[in-house]
Amino acid sequence: MKITSAKVIVTCPGRNFVTLKIMTDQGVYGIGDATMNGREKAVVAYLEEHVIPCILGMDPRRIEDIWQYLYKGAYWRRGPVTMRAIAAVDVALWDIKAKMANMPLYQLLGGRSRDSVMVYGHANGSDIAETVDAVGHYIELGYKAIRAQTGVPGIKDAYGVGRGKLYYEPADAALPSVTGWDTRQALNYVPRMFEKLRETYGFGYHLLHDGHHRYTPQEAANLGKMLEPYQLFWLEDCTPAENQEAFRLVRQHTVTPLAVGEIFNTIWDAKDLIQNQLIDYIRCTIVGAGGVTHLRRIADLAALYQIRTGSHGATDLSPVTMGTALHFDTWVPNFGIQEYMRHTEETDAVFPHDYHFAKGELFCGETPGHGVDIDEQLAAKYPYKPAFLPVARLEDGTMWNW
Ligand code: GCO
Ligand code: MG
């Protein structure tokens, strides 16, 4: 069996997506997601110039060998661009293998560990009252877990506050827009939101919060401690994790569960955090961390330390990643939760898929492969539109972590 051709499809049905389609001499094709929000064209070039020419003629059934070829063979290991390109190839090859086997992907991974996948939605508002309403809306929709983000008076566009009610899309400007940040105000305001949420809806729902890399370890420890009475499911990205050791200080001061990993690319980014049991949930995802082949290694390492998965699932992860992640989540023994930000109807139409949502859970389908396709004719109607993520500055102009 041989890979006969491969192409990269860029489309913008409301937001940009980069998709790799691999064709074979048996007529079976596979697709993989290669989207990197705000830096899409870098992965397009990596695939077109440096990956596709190398894999033509290879046997698509040799998924592991092709993964190693692209990882070790690049010499320049790791990094968000390389690992997304590898992920796109890997997912397309798993799709092909599962289609050849006439099985849904989760069967090839080891079969079902659960019937459905618990997801969390992203509720936001410009202040506490609005966020409380938004959480109520998610509860009405049947969600069992909700991440609550609020605007903070005095901060221009704090992280996570969207324009729509169910859709949150940060990459929305032809050049990066400038948002604000003030840690002191956020530390005063965020715990009050959780107090109000528990007062209003009780303790029957999981609540989560994203710190979006904004706090220093000491500030994160303080926030975690203040949030303890509200029993969060997790506090996400409480501090940047380039220095994995930073989480030790947070860990020493709070029992609020910690989650991190949406910007990690490989097992090496998570190794110390996992081995030292500094986190509770690992958030790496299929597209960001080298595909199914590599994410499986990360999940297995985490399982040794009773750390569970909680994959990133923002709108910039295409339905191809979501579909594949759901097969992964259906199999992975140490599953925790799956993030689920809804795609728009335009996006869903370009990527026909067989997963569905009901009562706070997502269900992967039984179609052979990962169950997601791309309608190329429709995709062609939505040309690429440059869109950057915002940046964040403190009041005095100092650049901060967005
Ligand atoms: C999340 C994330 C996103 C990211 C986005 C960047 O937890 O969903 O933090 O909102 O900011 O994926 O592209
Ligand atoms: Mg996040």
From TrEMBL:
CDD domains: RspA (cd03322). Its EC number is 4.2.1.8. Its cofactor is Mg(2+). Pathway: Carbohydrate metabolism; pentose and glucuronate interconversion. It is an enzyme of class 4 (lyase). GO terms for molecular function: mannonate dehydratase activity. Residues 128-257 form the Mandelate racemase/muconate lactonizing enzyme C-terminal domain. SMART domains: MR_MLE (SM00922). The keyword Disulfide bond does not apply. It catalyses: D-mannonate = 2-dehydro-3-deoxy-D-gluconate + H2O. SUPFAM superfamilies: Enolase C-terminal domain-like, Enolase N-terminal domain-like. It holds the Pfam family MR_MLE_C. The keyword Lyase applies. Catalyzes the dehydration of D-mannonate. Has no detectable activity with a panel of 70 other acid sugars (in vitro). PANTHER family: D-GALACTONATE DEHYDRATASE-RELATED, STARVATION-SENSING PROTEIN RSPA. Belongs to the mandelate racemase/muconate lactonizing enzyme family. GalD subfamily. This is mannonate dehydratase.
